[in-house]
User: What shape does this take?
Amino acid sequence: MPSNLLSGAKILLECLLRENVECIFGYPGGVTLPLYDALYDHPIRHVLVRHEQNAAFAAQGYARATGRVGVCCATSGPGATNLVTGLVDAMMDSIPIVALTGQVTTKLMGTDAFQEADTFGITRSATKHNFLVKNIADLPQVIHEAFYIAASGRPGPVLVDVTKDVFQGQAPYTPVTEIHLPGYKVYSEGHTGQIRRAAQMIWEAERPFVYGGGGLIAANANEEFREFVETTDTPAVCTLMGLGALPAEHPNFISMPGMHGSYAANMGLSHTDLIIALGVRFDDRVTGRLAAFAPHAKVIHVDIDPAEISKNRQADLPIVGDLRRVLPRLTAEVRDLAPTMKAKNAAARQAWWKQIRAWKEEHPLVAEVSETEIKPQHLMAEIDKLSGGRAIVTSDVGQHQMWSAQLIRFNEPRTWINSGGLGSMGFGLPAAIGAQFARPDKLVFAIVGDGGFQMSIPELATIANHKLPIKIVVMNNGYLGMVRQWQELFFNNRLSQVALTSFPDVEKLAGAYGFTGRTVDSVREMPTALADAVAEPGPYLLNVKVSPFENVFPMVPAGGALNEMVLRPPQPVEV
Ligand SMILES: Cc1ncc(C[n+]2csc(CCOP(=O)(O)OP(=O)(O)O)c2C)c(N)n1
Assistant: This one.
């Protein structure tokens, strides 16, 4: 056999090397055997997770922590179908991952062969794009296109399904030097005239308000964002996906808006006359009842994805482009107009800031502390102290996620990692694995509920295996807390199937994997228990027993308008 021939498996790995892939999160199987054989003595690191869903979540954790494309891998059939939740999750949050799946041999396709599933069909709507490779000659081009599509424009998951005969086949390998995708256009520059008009609108507004989202993080535009906010001196909220785009300690940062957003953030959106929407999608969890959202506002909407413009809320001034490129130009236009425009609404703007500060002071987001029980908010405040705005915090889905977002400061982008759009329980722990592999220098907390944690327990093995120093903090309220909260508030407190009456002894559980676990239920001991967990060089599983019936407030009831938010639990009536 001529020596310039490589197997499909080797060609694939060669392409990954050229994409600077350091690490693949995956799980092997029959069809991917040739790929795993090629990985056996290959420089690319493979991390064996314990369930394919977690491979996709870990790849996301890696991508979210770095901005680079995360890679996961699964075999055909059940391996591939196990990836689906992670793909949809990445799709909803615009996270760049490439999923590699094995497919049965081409001539067996369509015969209900062992472990055959129509991965291409199943993942069509779960991915930004997907490919099925049945010809080895197509493999290099497809792999590089997959990476390009995943990372460019609005990022997202791309799946490449590769048949076994392609892995096993032999072909000459020529590196791909060019990507040519005529049907795929990325609009990055933004329209100059529109940018100029936006600057004019910004000066004409009396009560401008910045609504920044995950797009800012995806675009790595945090510096450009900060400069824009400072130049315009506009109050800014960051969504659940956008936290960290502006440092939490920045004087212009108001907090998170939406269903569990702060009073000031929601009141600001309800009273502004100009929303400057940057990399957001007017998600229902932010807008509340759409018809009542920001009723007095004109909207400037900047997004790289034209499909987002006027999808939920009509944009008065759309700009389609990459925030990292558009924002500096917008800032420059705003500066240019300053000499003629600055005085115009100066008094109104001062009054606007005064009002916002008053809203902030009236109902700040503060952690309640009790002398007798650990309030979940208190737990988050202690984690915040240890983090100092710098740690990577991944969360699962539920009450703990909302309290984390409200009460932990994020001063850097890519430090707050959570499943925003899909809200997938079981996300937090594997995402922390990916994040810790990506950022070994960082302190990583995985804050999870006692429900979500039990969806991820198998990954304790992965953590133990690699001695990842992740601090797993279980906010244990004994319930599927967020569902219990809704049952209490909207279903007459008929608590149906939400009690988690059995939970493992974490000392034994972590001990079984060879690391430390501890349960803490005393308020006095909780801060030191957390500090001890951080001080321990390896992994740590801390089970914190918090008050079971605490609810997340503020809360905009489903279908409510933002200014109809409920600020605190109903107080008992005195008689
Ligand atoms: C995979 C999945 N199944 C179900 C849900 C619905 N759900 C949302 S929050 C929640 C409760 C989560 O409970 P827990 O993990 O204990 O966290 P807590 O709300 O108590 O902080 C559930 C069941 C979900 N988001 N994801």
In short: The pocket of thiamine diphosphate is lined by residues 396-400, 423-426, 449-452, 475, 477, 479-483 (CB under 6 Å).
